[in-house]
Amino acid sequence: MSSYLMGIDLGTSSTKTLIIDTAGRMAGIGNADYGIRIPHISWAEQDPEEWWEAVKSSIGQAMEKAGVSGSEIMGISFSGQMHGMVALDENKEPVCPAIIHLDQRSSEDLAEIRSLAGNLMQEELLNQPSAGMIISTIYWMKKHQRQVYDRIRYVMSAKDYISFRLCGEIGTEYTDAGATLAFSVKNYRWCTELFERLDIRKEIWAPVHRSFEIAGEVTARAAEETGLCPGTRIAYGAGDSMAALTGNGIIESGCITCNIGTASQLAAVADQPIFDPQMRIQTWCHTVPGRWVVQSGTLNGGSTLSWLRSRILKTDKSFAQLDMEAGKTPAGADGLYFLPYLSGERTPYNEPKAKGVYFGLSMMHEQGHVVRATMEGILFNLKECLCILDAMSVKREKLIASGGAARGVTWKQIQADMLDMPVYSTNIREEACHGAAILAGVGVGVYKDIKEACQATITMSDKVVEPIRENVKIYNEKQSVFHDLFYSVRDLYPRIV
Question: What InterPro entries does its record include (predicted)?
């Protein structure tokens, strides 16, 4: 009987379930969408029950397409949207909707939180709290929704809730724990002193494990709902950024990735925890023990192009067609710039009130210019992040593109030109799901460690995108305009919110 591994990615707008064999070949994949609720300006919520229904649907689709039964799945693990909070009561039922990473309700409390955190940001957290992170959200809730806060018995990240629904056990792992901003990224433990300073209860935080450790087994009830086999082992998994890095084989120091999914990240693997004194970038735990990820976790990525396509252009053109259209427009979009801050921003500017701006429009500009400027805005923002990494002497030797942008010809060329590095890519199409499946394989003993799993299941594409020197020059000249444009309008943001 064949044996397979399952990786479930609980994203911001959809969940995907991937089934691979032990050589990394895709057997089947399922997908189910859900929406974001915005009950008030700057709030962003989702219903955990909708997640669970989507997960069940995607599992069923993946097994049907793969032609496998639940008994053939050796292990399951997860990737998931990071930072957001699911809060359960003593009966393990949600006390409120999930408050996700895009939520900005705690922005007015950030100065107070940071002041109370003080030296812990440098000595333990290696980051500063931002809106949308669990520590900020729960502090806001303590102040503004005390009756709800008092009912909380457990808090967890998104994927950990799905793990709980499958195996009945509550726990988390290092990558998502670090992203709560309540965890010592430096020393792998909950920062209890922070809880004391913020007057937040200590008992609500889940036990923390390594990403590939076993969380539990599929329960009889979950098996009945999903078609999985009771007793199938479940590994904890990882936050989506770290799962995607793992799924692309980016686990060694010096590897860097440009990931453009719903949001976007520029991330480098390091063999020691690195702290940015100005706290512009983040340092997280990697799935590999003793490795960290130095990351610019920006809030805006492919979502801006999705917004442009569906809300503004209202076109049926595919993203591949828009990519081709942008490719016919010259580098620099003939002087059109885009500040991509449709969801505020975390890195390189911790500015939750930031908004998007098109600047330089003229009668000569056409749809292709707007599309290209939108794509370039994401990369200009990431180039600002790269400058921070370089100033900190973070080693970068090889760039691997990931996310939806890894599939766009123009996207990859803009990356190569803007970041002035050859752009490599893997043959993996669903990096976060694949990374989750790798962690499942390590957890159940198919592979001895993550490195062996990556070697067994990941191959590189033979297509490498080299920088075009003339475009590199153009973008280097235009980077300062992008930089200055942000600071020119920054003081206006509070006046329009």
Answer: ATPase_NBD, Carb_kinase_FGGY, Carb_kinase_FGGY_CS, FGGY_C, FGGY_Carb_Kinase, FGGY_N, Xylulokinase
